[in-house]
Amino acid sequence: MSNNDFRVEHRYLELPDSFYTRVRPSPLRAPRMVCFNEGLADQMGFHTDNPEEWTRVGAGAELLEGMDPVAMKYTGHQFGMYNPELGDGRGLLLWETVGPDGRRWDWHLKGAGTTPYSRFGDGRAVLRSTVREYLCSEAMEGLGIPTTRALFMISAKDPVRRESIETAAALVRVAQSHIRFGHFEFAAHHEGPETVKTLMEHVIALHFPQLIELPEEERHRRWFEEVVERTARLIADWQAVGFCHGVMNSDNMSIIGDTFDYGPYAFLDDFDAGHICNHTDQGGRYAYNRQPQVGFTNCQYLANALLPVMDEDDVRRGLRCYEVAYNARFLQNMRNKLGLLAEQESDLGLIMDTFSMLHEHRVDYTLFFRALSNLRAHGNAPIRDLFVDRSVADEWLKRYEERLDNETRPDDERESAMRSVNPKYVLRNYLAQQVIQEAQNGDYEPMKALLKVLERPFDEQPENEQYAAPPPDWGKHLNISCSS
Q1: CA–CA distance, 468 with 395 (Å, rounded to integer)
Q2: Catalytic residue check, 251
Q3: What is the pTM of this model?
Q4: Which of 43, 306, 327, 459 has the highest Cβ tally under 10 A?
Q5: Alpha-carbon distance 305 to 169, whole Å?
Q6: Which of 88, 106, 122, 251 is catalytic?
Q7: For 245-285, how does the pLDDT look when each residue is reduced to its tens digit (9 = 90+)?
Q8: 181 or 165: whose pLDDT is higher?
């Protein structure tokens, strides 16, 4: 390493030792650095002219001075059922660093081998899922949605059995915090009130410093309200870009409101309000249109964990913040997408009718809103062509034009603002699948090219038009499972 400007800490180890187990990573064979996020590394305060020097760290074969890897212990609700056996089953928290801007970063090595929480698993990550997580976390960053990030990934030769024999890979995932709702459920169900309070004060000190000086009762109340509001706003942002998470278990909910743990995710193609992106989700618990409610349910699980140390009325009031925050953010997001600056009571009706129309006629979600962002420049045709029955589009466009009569912004200014919130490029599953197939053949250049496109999802990028195309028939409704 060279020219570094960060400080090493490991504040997670200040928690009671029931929250972790020290584990050394199991080295991977013949590791190869395949993708290194130089822009992110720069933000974090370290610089390297040779990313290869991080390969052995990513492979679990080398620990730098200050690294003290631990598997975190937590529990949580999976598909509505409480599971006490959870924890980091294939990942290790290596250390924490603080960059030159004061931001704290957890370094988490995914695919590091078995831990006490592996539950008969092999502790490995496969190339397919590692590429998917790298791509989507960086796509979300480009969209401006809070997320964990991908620092670098390595490939390896080790065989891993999933539905078939695949090869291993590992990812260094970074985030301001890896603490989840499930940490609080573990503390409440298995450790007791003092441990819940210890964990809460730890999280406040590191991630909500603006609350530290408040009296205890107010501090805890304000903290819970902010966690609930961040969660609500995050999910409203997912809904606005048509993102489906797929596994919204409470152990996958970040305490600071990041998009966390990318498994069987999807960005909607043809709009289907009930789209289920995880083929193991038989009942559709985590379907697209259920995500807002599931976010609230997870906040209830967190609230139950906090009841031993917080006033019940404060907890109830905190939970009520969810609906207010979600509705306000969702409505604002959709007004922005439609280019509506002058707020009107009838806007919500227009928004919900738009969703109903897109659902009934299975219109491509991203293409529709991007075409709407160029309505004056390109005319009605790009929107009408998304509909089999063009009269439906004509009727909606007439209503939309009537609503625009109440706007005072110049057309070009409005549509420029719309293009800044309606992405032209999203990580459609077929694009990810094409990149994975090339990666499995040893070629990572397509992955790097796609990452470059996803860095600027709102820009026109005329040289990259092919990435904005609707999916081919084989690329719609791809089956993605948790094991990915």
Answers
A1: 26
A2: yes
A3: 0.96
A4: 306
A5: 35
A6: 251
A7: 999 999 999 999 999 999 999 999 999 999 999 989 989 99
A8: 181
